[in-house]
């Protein structure tokens, strides 16, 4: 299977490369050209600066959004009055694309990094909130009963039963949030920024620097992929008892 | 009191907003009053040109979504029922899942042009992932006993697919749809904000550039409403088509 898989991907890449040699339009580079340009860009400081600027926006946004999402989601799942008060507003605004608030955030918090961090945090909040909420709701009642039966207090039940039972769901929400944080970061930088990978790809597009365009594309792809692996790694370490979906 | 609780939070938020608008501490630009937003929203609904922009955004979102649904269900079910297809395609989808496909937009502009096609293509690509992944998951976990009974009663492969696999996968497909619909809206609005001459995302940027934040927020309300209605439509369609299994979520 592994061999067939590798062969499949290599033949896809080879087909692309062959097409490029046959003559593709200038805006489609061949895999070899992309790799060459990327290695070249790794040697210069420019790519690192823009990648660092992007991460400086997406990671704090992700951290803030995830923190409040998990906190309020757990609270809404546990306390009925808070659920009634807060959840309807979250669920109603869930399908709304949060990026449309970016212009408003730029007016409120300035056109610097703060507005971008906050819009990323807002977007990251929803998946984690909803997953934490349903994670708590899906706690098997029998576990709570047994804990009660064995004399556990409310705090102990939350810490030892509800939280571990909701944790896999929270991590699933974090994976969605992480992917979302990169999308929103990229969009915000494409709309308005002076640095970052989204800005770089806009500059490349406007000056028809196709090499730079693919380099920033590949950089975003690598960052997104690495972030996802990191969350999954953390999940495997922290939730070793939970059976992982592949 | 208990029934009113959900409204209290929203009402307080709106009240704070209105108070901020009238306090005179901030410019009207930062907190336009609710009445002016409502007025602009009514004007939005009454102007055919503006409604046309909403229609442009809607058909881009729905076009990309429909394409993704058709291709995604096919690919997902194929992956679920064929080991070979899963082995070849699963690494492709799970490997690029976390990669923001939005980064491809500049490339798509060159390939598909700056009009609707590049946006529809990007919506298609972003919606494809949740639909493929969910239908793959669903088709893989069809109850084996059901498949055996169908075979035992002499059902052909086509019949098994149509009468057993598809209905068993349907709830998962709709779960994928529910993820994909907001994604479609997000992508349409973002791409229209980045580069477009029409659509709701363009209206947002345009009203901002003309310093009419009340008008902009009216468009935001319209986008929110559209996103909400599309989600409701998916839930409604799900409940009609999958009548044998109720959605067990608290809020739908």
In brief, what are we looking at here?
Chain A has 246 residues and is mostly helical. Chain A has helices spanning 2-23, 31-42, 45-78, 80-93, 102-109, 113-137, 141-149, 154-191, 197-206, 210-238. Chain A is globular and about 75 Å long.
Walk me through this protein's architecture:
The complex is a heterodimer of chains A (246) and B (252). Chain A is mainly alpha-helical and 246 residues long. Chain A has a single domain (44-238), classed as MetI-like fold (Orthogonal Bundle). Chain A has ten helices and no strands. In chain A, helix 2 (31-42) crosses helix 10, helix 7 runs antiparallel to helix 8 (154-191) and helix 9 packs antiparallel against helix 10. Chain B is mainly α and 252 residues long. Chain B has one domain: MetI-like (MetI-like fold), CATH 1.10.3720.10. Helix content of chain B is 79%, strand content 0%. Chain B has ten helices and no strands. Chain B has helices spanning 5-23, 34-46, 48-81, 83-96, 105-112, 116-140, 144-152, 157-194, 200-209, 213-241. In chain B, helix 5 (105-112) crosses helix 6. The mean pLDDT of chain B is 87. At the A-B interface, helix 1, helix 4, helix 5, helix 8 and helix 9 of A face helix 1, helix 4, helix 5, helix 8 and helix 9 of B.
Annotation keywords:
heterodimer, A: about 250 residues, mainly alpha, MetI-like fold, 10 helices, B: about 250 residues, elongated
Averaging pLDDT over every residue of chain A, what do you get? 86
Task: Note the beta-strand portion of chain A.
Answer: under 5%
**Name of the CATH class of chain A:** Mainly Alpha
Q: List the domain count of chain B as a whole number.
A: 1
Strand content of chain B: under 5%
Helix count of chain A equals 10
DSSP, total strands of chain B: 0
Low-pLDDT segments of chain B: none
What integer is the average pLDDT of chain B? 87
- Looking at this structure, what is the CATH superfamily of chain A? MetI-like
Low-confidence stretches of chain A: none
């Amino acid at each position: 299977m592994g061999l067939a898989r590798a062969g499949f991907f290599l033949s896809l890449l080879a087909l692309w490369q062959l097409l490029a040699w046959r003559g593709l339009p200038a805006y489609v580079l061949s895999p070899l050209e992309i790799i060459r340009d990327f290695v070249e860009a790794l040697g210069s400081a420019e790519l690192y600066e823009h990648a660092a600027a992007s991460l400086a926006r997406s990671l704090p946004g992700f951290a803030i959004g995830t923190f409040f999402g998990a906190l309020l989601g757990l609270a809404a799942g546990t306390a009925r009055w808070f659920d009634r008060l807060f959840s309807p507003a979250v669920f109603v605004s869930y399908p709304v694309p949060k990026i449309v608030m970016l212009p408003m955030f730029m007016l409120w918090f300035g056109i610097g990094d703060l507005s971008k961090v906050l819009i990323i945090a807002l977007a990251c909040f929803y998946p984690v909130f909803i997953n934490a909420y349903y994670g708590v709701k899906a706690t098997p009642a029998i576990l709570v009963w047994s804990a009660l039966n064995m004399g556990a207090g409310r705090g102990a039940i939350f810490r030892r039963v509800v939280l571990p039972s909701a944790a896999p769901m929270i991590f699933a929400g974090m994976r969605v949030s992480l992917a979302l944080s990169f999308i929103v970061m990229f969009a915000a930088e494409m709309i308005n920024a002076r640095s970052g990978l989204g800005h770089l790809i806009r500059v490349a597009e406007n000056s028809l620097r196709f090499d730079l365009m693919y380099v920033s594309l590949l950089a975003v792809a690598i960052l997104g992929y690495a972030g996802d692996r990191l969350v999954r790694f953390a999940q495997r370490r922290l939730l070793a008892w939970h059976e992982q979906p592949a | 009191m208990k029934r009113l609780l959900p409204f209290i939070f929203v009402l307080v938020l709106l009240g704070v907003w209105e108070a901020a608008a009238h306090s005179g501490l901030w410019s009207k630009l930062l907190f336009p009053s609710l009445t002016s937003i409502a007025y602009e929203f009514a004007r939005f609904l009454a102007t055919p040109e503006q409604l046309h922009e909403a229609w442009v955004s809607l058909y881009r979102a729905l076009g990309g979504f429909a394409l993704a649904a058709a291709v995604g269900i096919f690919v997902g079910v194929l992956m679920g029922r064929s080991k070979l297809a899963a082995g070849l395609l699963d690494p492709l989808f799970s490997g690029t899942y976390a990669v923001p496909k939005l980064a491809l937009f500049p490339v798509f502009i060159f390939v598909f042009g700056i009009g609707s096609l590049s946006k529809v293509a990007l919506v298609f690509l972003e919606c494809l992932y949740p639909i493929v992944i969910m239908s793959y998951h669903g088709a893989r976990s069809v109850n084996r006993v059901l498949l055996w009974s169908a075979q035992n009663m002499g059902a052909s492969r086509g019949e098994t697919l149509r009468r057993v696999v598809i209905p068993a996968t349907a709830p998962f497909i709709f779960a994928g749809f529910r993820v994909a619909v907001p994604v479609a809206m997000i992508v349409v609005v973002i791409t229209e904000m980045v580069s477009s001459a029409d659509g709701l995302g363009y209206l947002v940027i345009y009203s901002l550039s003309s310093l009419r934040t009340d008008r902009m927020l009216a468009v935001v309300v319209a986008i929110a409403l559209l996103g909400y209605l599309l989600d409701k439509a998916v839930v409604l369609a799900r409940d009609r088509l999958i009548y044998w299994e109720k959605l067990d979520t608290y809020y739908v």
